[in-house]
Specification:
Helices cover 46% and strands 18% of the residues. It is α/β, with parallel strands linked by helices. The protein folds into 2 domains: 149 residues, Rossmann fold, CATH 3.40.50; 147 residues, NAD(P)-binding Rossmann-like Domain (Rossmann fold). The strands form 2 sheets. A 7-stranded mixed sheet has the order 9-8-7-6-10-11-12, sandwiched between helices. A 5-stranded mixed sheet has the order 1-2-4-3-5. It binds 1,4-dihydronicotinamide adenine dinucleotide and 2-oxoglutaric acid (AKG). 2-oxoglutaric acid (AKG) binds next to strand 3 and helix 12. It comes from Botrimarina mediterranea.
């Protein structure tokens, strides 16, 4: 199943439980607008390449559309469409006043120098500035992008539409960003991992964790969980995977990536194992925090963890999801598990609109409250309806979007 088809699969399952009729389903699942743009890139060596970029605005019934910007060689329109629709349900699940969108450029982010990245980002804004804006569509970081790209977006957008820091979130803290956005997705994943273990009556202290991906989300998840005394026994990134049954020294791993251009390559705090093996370890919790579709029909039978927290977007294919559910594996779905990032993006946008600075304590407090509320709502309803967590989470999101569309008279 391709990315958008996979989201539709989950959407229809939840819509069925809600008794939603087919015309309303069609309205809610169809993207409002899709833009494909050409991005000419002059490489540092003078050669010319033409890249392709996308922005999909999925649904605006609940407010301006919100979602990250991904630089990755596998990005295509279908993937961006799938990710944009996930954003619609995600913002609704945590009940922040946004719709959903997503963007991407098909390029290997690691192949770009800093200057090339800046040129790609500014060219992208040249192509999409008319459809983004603080009241319409607000980009943010995703795989392969971070605070630098967000600062360039704000600056380039201002050249066309005037200064407005609320056009993009995830900016540097010294440049209209908010303290706590960089850690927010990983902090949320960590917090909800502890809450999941708590609801299952399992101890978090000493719980073993395998974590795939050691970028923004992976590193902050690792930091939070190691500080909460979980035992992270395996970590990985695109350069390889490392395992240490006694527990990886996360501080050492963080130091290593900070000094090594963000990569784990050369890390000596564990035995090197094949990347695929990490997903199959007998751990208490498995956290995929990198690519989509990594747990699929080819490896699902080997996955042993009883709890999976989806830090990445769509890391489990629907086929694998069904098999895991049959085996009673508890899966906290992406649209709840990784919603901490967009929640703090909302705080940043609100701060930008008021020109009033929030403190880190306030950001963390409000983030924890927002995620806890959403988690409790989903968990209680899942027990009440004897439905899986993914279907229940989609139901909560879809209901809010449908209600907003009805109240606004969209149809
Ligand atoms: N950055 C954010 O605030 C949010 C990110 N997400 C999702 O979290 C996931 C990770 O995003 P970020 O951490 O922001 O990206 P990032 O670009 O900062 O880090 C990605 C990490 O994944 C690793 N990776 C890539 N291919 C791999 C492979 N085959 N095996 C193991 N590791 C591999 C990279 O080496 C890197 O460590 C994505 O699915 C993204 O959509 C979700 C919500 C918010
Ligand atoms: O912070 C944001 O606005 C969006 C983050 C994002 O792209 C995601 O949650 O997948």
């Amino acid at each position: 199943m391709k990315a958008f088809e996979a989201v539709q699969h989950y959407f229809h399952k939840a819509a069925h439980e809600l008794g939603m009729e087919s015309p309303m389903r069609k309205l809610l699942i169809t993207p409002e607008r899709e833009l494909t743009v050409q991005i000419p890139l002059r490489r540092d060596d003078g050669t010319l390449e033409t890249l392709v970029g996308y922005r999909v605005q999925h649904n605006s019934a609940r407010g301006p559309m919100k979602g990250g910007l991904r630089y990755h060689h596998e990005v295509d329109l279908d993937e961006v469409r799938g990710l944009a629709s996930l954003m619609t349900w995600k913002t609704a699940v945590v009940n922040i006043p946004y719709g959903g969108a997503k963007g991407g450029v098909t390029v290997n982010a690691r192949s770009l120098s800093k200057n090339e990245k800046e040129r790609v980002t500014r060219k992208l804004v040249d192509a999409i500035h008319q459809v983004i804006g603080p009241d319409s569509d607000i980009p943010a970081p995703d795989m392969g992008t971070g605070h630098e790209e967000m600062a360039w977006i704000m600056n380039q957008y201002a050249k066309y539409q005037g200064f407005n820091p609320g056009v993009v979130t995830g900016k540097p803290v010294e440049h209209y960003g908010i303290p706590g956005r960089e850690e927010a997705t990983g902090r949320g994943v960590g917090l909800l991992t502890l809450k999941t273990l708590g609801r299952l009556g399992r101890k978090s202290a000493g719980a073993t964790v395998a974590l795939q991906g050691f970028g923004n989300v992976g590193t902050h998840t690792a930091k939070f969980l190691s500080e909460a005394d979980c035992k992270i026994v395996a970590i990985s990134d695109q350069t390889g995977a490392w395992r240490n049954p006694k527990g990886i020294d996360i501080k050492a791993a963080l130091r290593h990536v900070n000094q090594n251009n963000g990569q784990l390559e050369g890390f000596e705090g564990g035995e090197r194992i094949p990347g695929d093996e990490l997903l199959e370890l007998g751990v208490d919790v498995l956290i995929p925090a990198a690519l989509g579709g990594v747990i699929n029909e080819s490896n699902v039978a080997q996955v042993k963890a009883p709890v999976i927290i989806e830090a990445a977007n769509a890391p489990i294919t629907p086929e694998a999801d069904e098999k895991l559910q049959e085996r009673g594996v508890i899966i906290l779905p992406d649209i709840l598990a990784n919603a901490g990032g967009v929640t703090v993006s909302y705080f940043e946008w609100a701060q930008n609109r008021q020109f009033y600075r929030w403190t880190l304590d306030r950001v963390r407090g409000e983030l924890d409250r927002t995620l806890t509320h959403a988690f409790e709502e989903v968990w209680d309803r899942s027990i009440e309806r004897t439905l899986g967590l993914r279907t229940t989470t989609f139901m909560v999101g879809i209901e809010r979007v449908a209600r907003a569309a009805e109240l606004a008279g969209v149809a």
